[in-house]
């Protein structure tokens, strides 16, 4: 079964077509990178999949659960790191995790264990009683990442997980993504960072102007375009120099 | 050593850490979890603590009692100078001086003539009472003796002083009148053919004290106002603030419905409105008590039982608590709806400032509205709440009136809650 299926997803904001009839599927246990320039429709696509935006037409399924018709069930299968960390500034790092853990109906003992484990893994134990407002950008991003994998959901959606984060924190987050996928979970990440794509992704989808320009294995794309830097591959695809495989 | 009430500059939470840890053992009900988070945030927000608790506790007694206290002769006795130019009228001056024994005024008697205007203009005295030459001769000759008051037309204390002195002068004049009538063998009734008596008419049939009247006027208005506006800042924060900080998107990625989230937020807001409302009521009662004590005969006369009829205390408490809860929910539902149109906290504040003004008008108008308007006020949004509080305090026995204002308040509450939930689920609320 595909972990995620996007079926003719379309989103219009007035006259603007942000996402145009987008279809793709993501295999279970893979890391899927969604690439595209600013305003291409990556975030809108992810938002429709994780259920905070309603598609104008089309739908998406997460492990077979329709996000439009059964959003609550679908959301319970996904962990999400949105574009903004969305941490409550007056809550501590730990309280932010408690809040979201309780919203995901985690049992008391499991939540305590998991919060301690994640704070330890992300080197944030000494920051557990610090309000989010006083954490650095990198620390906030790590707490938000911990929040996304708190109840170990089978599907993880990450919107720019390393954007604006210092080198050390980005490294820790990348490691966590790899480790998470290694346990058989599916990860979808939207990013500008070519290094993240090269290092992490098995499959990639390239979006430009709301349309899918390429969908396939990372290696296949490299073969299609030739011996080029990955960044050049991306630029040529977005410009339409290369025909979709 | 500085005491940190909320948190240190390092951002490490100390005092409210236990409340945060309490989150682990909360039941997994979305609305309870959301309410816990909202209250925890409110506790750490100085604005909320200031608006919800401290401001009503400090402001209400001051706002209610200060004007009465400032004008009360007992609290701050006015300074009166009696200038006696006719030494035969010293007995009247001494009667005015006797006001000092009841602490109603500070009286200075001087003899002679002069211009005392500067004393008024410099604020050294509030009133100069001049008993001019020939005053006694005019009286003994059967004519009118004239007393002159020199006062500051802008000074409220001057008016108070005139009122006190006039009481003495009226008594003095009355004594002379009685003597004159006796001399010609006429009764007082003969020259005063009509007298008036004022009798209170109340639904309960009994007499009500000044304190009870003030309570019935002030409390419903205060309760309504604070219930509606008390948690206003937090209502803005709940919607526009969540959007501005981009926290709402992360929240809605969880397996929760927007209705459950809104329900939790309203639970927290109602709790805040109750805290705010109760502190307002208690501080208003203190304010009314101080105000009444400054006008009544003695402080001992003013007891809590005089502010509230003891036989109606149960209705009073139920009425106040219900009004606060309903008012808090209604006000916040309106605020949430309005805040949903705003893209930022600042913009929401502007909408809500205007809206608060609109909501406050019916509350403030109720004490001055004629009784004939009461049936209509019971049917209007917001004013129905104040009318319910008033009905429960003044006429709890009038069931039709009580149930009308309660039912109408509940209907409006449902409408506003529905409206706020519709606005809350809009995508534009999440993404601006």
What order do the strands of the largest sheet of chain A run in, or round the barrel if closed?
6-7-8-3-9-10
Q: Supply the CATH architecture of chain A.
A: 3-Layer(aba) Sandwich
Total beta-strand segments of chain A: 10
User: Structural class from helices and strands of chain A?
Assistant: alpha/beta
Strand content of chain B: under 5%
Q: Tell me the major beta sheet of chain B.
A: 4 strands, mixed
Mean pLDDT figure of chain B: 82
Kindly report the spatial arrangement of strands forming the biggest sheet of chain B.
Answer: 2-1-3-4
Distance between the termini of chain A: 23 Å
Rg calc of chain B:
30 Å
Ranges of chain A where pLDDT stays below 50 over 5 or more residues in a row are: none
CATH topology of chain A: Rossmann fold
Which range best describes the helical content of chain A: under 10%, 10-25%, 25-40%, 40-55%, 55-70% or over 70%?
A: 25-40%
**N→C terminal distance of chain B:** 45 Å
| Total strand segments of chain B | 4
Helical fraction of chain B equals: 55-70%
Largest interface: chains, residues each: A-B, 45 and 38 residues
What is the name of the CATH superfamily of chain A?
Answer: P-loop containing nucleotide triphosphate hydrolases
Order of helices and strands of chain A: EEEHEEHEHHHEHEHEEHH
- Please work out how many helical segments of chain B DSSP would assign: 19
Q: Helix count of chain A?
A: 9
């Amino acid at each position: 079964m595909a972990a995620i299926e996007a079926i003719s997803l379309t989103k219009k904001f007035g006259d603007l077509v942000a996402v145009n009839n987008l279809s793709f599927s993501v295999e279970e246990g893979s890391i899927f990178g969604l690439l595209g320039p600013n305003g291409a429709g990556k975030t809108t696509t992810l938002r429709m999949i994780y259920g905070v935006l309603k598609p104008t037409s089309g739908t998406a399924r997460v492990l077979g659960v329709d996000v439009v018709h059964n959003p609550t069930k679908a959301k319970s299968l996904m962990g999400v790191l949105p574009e903004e960390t969305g941490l409550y500034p007056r809550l501590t790092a730990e309280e932010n995790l408690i809040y979201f853990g309780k919203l995901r109906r985690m049992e008391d003992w499991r939540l305590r264990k998991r919060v301690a484990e994640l704070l330890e893994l992300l080197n944030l134990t000494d920051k557990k009683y610090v309000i989010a407002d006083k954490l650095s950008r990198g620390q906030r991003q790590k707490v938000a990442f911990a929040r996304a994998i708190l109840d170990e959901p089978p599907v993880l959606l990450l919107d720019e997980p390393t954007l604006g984060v210092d080198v050390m924190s980005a490294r820790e987050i990348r490691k966590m993504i790899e480790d998470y996928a290694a346990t058989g979970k599916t990860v979808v990440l939207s990013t500008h960072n070519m290094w993240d794509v090269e290092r992490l992704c098995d499959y990639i989808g390239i979006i430009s102007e709301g349309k899918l320009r390429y969908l396939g294995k990372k290696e296949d794309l490299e073969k299609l375009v030739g011996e080029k830097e990955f960044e050049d591959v991306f630029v040529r695809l977005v410009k339409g120099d290369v025909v979709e495989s | 050593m500085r005491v940190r009430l909320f948190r240190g500059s390092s951002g490490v939470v100390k005092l409210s850490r236990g409340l945060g840890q309490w989150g682990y053992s909360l039941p997994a009900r979305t609305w309870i979890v959301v309410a816990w988070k909202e209250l925890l945030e409110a506790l750490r927000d100085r604005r909320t603590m200031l608006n919800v608790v401290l401001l009503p506790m400090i402001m209400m007694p001051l706002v209610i009692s200060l004007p009465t206290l400032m004008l009360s002769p007992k609290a701050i006795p006015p300074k009166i100078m009696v200038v006696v130019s006719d030494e035969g009228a010293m007995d009247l001056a001494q009667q005015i001086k006797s006001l000092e024994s009841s602490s109603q005024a500070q009286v200075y008697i001087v003899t002679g003539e002069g211009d005392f205007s500067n004393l008024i203009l410099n604020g050294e005295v509030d009133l100069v009472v001049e008993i001019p030459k020939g005053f006694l001769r005019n009286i003994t000759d059967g004519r009118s003796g004239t007393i002159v008051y020199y006062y500051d037309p802008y000074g409220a204390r001057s008016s108070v002083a005139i009122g006190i002195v006039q009481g003495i002068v009226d008594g003095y004049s009355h004594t002379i009148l009685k003597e004159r009538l006796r001399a010609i063998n006429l009764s007082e009734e003969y020259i005063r053919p009509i007298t008036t008596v004022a009798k209170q008419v109340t639904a309960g049939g009994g007499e009500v004290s000044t304190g009870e009247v003030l309570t019935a006027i002030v409390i419903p208005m205060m309760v309504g106002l604070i219930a509606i506006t008390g948690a206003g800042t937090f209502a803005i924060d709940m919607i526009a603030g969540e959007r501005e900080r981009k926290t709402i998107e992360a929240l809605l990625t969880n397996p929760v419905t927007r209705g459950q989230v809104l329900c939790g937020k309203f639970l927290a807001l109602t709790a805040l409105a109750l805290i705010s409302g109760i502190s307002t009521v208690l501080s208003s009662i203190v304010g009314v008590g101080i105000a009444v004590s400054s006008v009544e005969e003695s402080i001992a006369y003013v007891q809590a039982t005089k502010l509230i009829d003891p036989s109606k205390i149960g209705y009073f408490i139920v009425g106040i608590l219900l009004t606060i809860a309903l008012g808090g929910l209604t006000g916040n539902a309106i605020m949430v709806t309005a805040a949903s149109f705003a893209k930022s906290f600042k913009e929401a504040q502007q909408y809500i400032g205007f809206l608060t003004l609109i909501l406050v008008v019916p509350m403030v108008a109720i004490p001055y509205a004629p009784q004939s308007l009461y049936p209509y006020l019971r049917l209007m949004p917001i004013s129905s709440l104040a009318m319910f509080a008033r009905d429960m305090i003044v006429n709890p026995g009038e069931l039709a009136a009580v149930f009308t204002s309660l039912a109408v308040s509940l209907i409006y509450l449902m409408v506003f809650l529905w409206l706020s939930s519709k606005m809350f689920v809009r995508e534009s609320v999440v993404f601006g």
